[in-house]
Amino acid sequence: MGAYILRRILLMIPTMIGIMAISFAVIQFAPGGPVERVIAQLTGTDSGATSRVSGGGGDFAGQQPGGAQQGGGDVSSKYRGAQGLDPEFIKKLEKQFGFDKPPLERFLLMMKSYLTFDFGQSYFRDVSVMKLIAEKMPVSISLGLWMTLLTYLISIPLGIRKAVQDGSRFDVWTSGVLVIGYAIPSFLFAIFLIVLFAGGSFWSIFPLRGLWSDNWASLTWGEKVVDYFWHLVLPLTAMALGAFTSSAFLTKNSFLDEIRKQYVMTARMKGLTERQVLYGHVFRNAMLLVIAGFPGAFIGAFFGGSLLIETIFSLDGLGLLGFESVVNRDYPVVFATLYVFSLVGLVVGLVSDLTYTWIDPRIDFESREV
Question: Can you tell me the distance from the alpha carbon of 183 to that of 176, in angstroms, rounded to the nearest whole number?
């Protein structure tokens, strides 16, 4: 097993390089960029949704580009809206953002820094990228961790009961509820919850913003725990509405497939109780497929599925940070979040494979090729 783990870890290196290289190449051909964004803000033509320049780009935000030249020269002609600006000013902008170096050199320098998790400074915020990610991480961890845990704690017992009572009234009506919940968009259900329970038009039971109250510092330890989970009720409910469906049906179908096998009939003939058969024999085999879907569920809840929920409930997490960084062309933050997302995904995939062997010792990855 040690050799398998080592091979998987070594395989992560070219995988990460490939992901970052493809993303870096795409960025080179994408229209716009941090230089164009600063130029647009200085000339008053920026219409970005999160328009602001500070920190890294702030050195130029408060000064007008003096020495303007009609025509702009060869340097300014590369950027839309830069005609008429001093070419020396454009060169300073390029140097400020590191665009005075060839693309290959910039990529190699970036990857060298990322090996030590040195993500540099944000272009438009006066803070390091690592500090920025650390500030947003608790929100994404809260949503992703509790969402995944809640989904599996509910869907697995529900799927098992649906398998045991296959075709019953309980199975039929729960299937209908799951399908309807899966069809409702999470952001639409989130708005419904706000209107109904967060002071929209009816009750004002749950808080609407953030993960803790304004008086968090003055609360006792127990009150902080209650306050924290009280703020998570609506976001998790909105995210979990459709998340149960796939894992519940996957659990049901996996158990149905195992229940019909010969070894289950043999166990029953030996006089084992239904509970012993179900949890002593069927559970271990049936849960393999469910565990296989864990990495995707975790990553989806941890990052991808939280953007709209973070926006609606004013939760400043990694999903919202990544979106704003793309809009603002804040490339250090964009590449850093991509690097973290990809690395977490690869690590979770390895943990999932190791969990296979814990549940079913018959599985031996050691003798297989990666």
Answer: 11
